[in-house]
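Our working data are protein records whose layout never changes between entries. Getting from the letters to the tokens is the skill we practise here. To make this concrete, we reproduce a full record directly below:
***
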Amino acid sequence: MLEIADGTAVLSGLPRGVVILGKLTSIIQHSETPTIVFLDFAGIDVATSSFIRSAIMGFRDQCVTLKTNNFPVLANISQDTIDELKLAIGSQNDGVFVCELDADDKPSSWQIIGSLDEKQVRTLKAVKTEGEVDATLLQAKHQEIESIGTTAWNNRLTALARKALLVETKRGRVKRYRSITEFA
């Protein structure tokens, strides 16, 4: 991010966010396989909530809407930026993956920053436990814990895929889901 931001250690405001969004979208290409795009914040002191909403969340939403098969993950972010990210997301029932990247670009310390509802958190945990899933599998395997139908599971999975927290693939008429962390 420091390079894209022309060496600026403080990323603030909607106008700068729109500029960075343009730079991010110009370098991203459609991927045949799910690809994590690490947005490395090493060297960035702080990114403000207005910048995050316009650049980072905007980029994530474009990746999802355009079905680029790219999944943004924030890496090496400062505590000040985490605080601003929480402010940007607020109570919007949203979240993003963050992690640490080492010198070899190996991710660790994965976490979701945001405010997902409890049902979505349980769904993410179920996907992590089961690996690749579809709504029918979750309904069958988790019926004792949560007595909901296939449609409800599908709605939850789709909502998490729209947040770029899950990878959605189609096999015939069936949509399958996996955590994006599997592709790191």
Q: What stands out?
A: Strands lie at 10-11, 35-40, 46-47, 70-75, 95-101, 107-114, 166-171, 174-179.
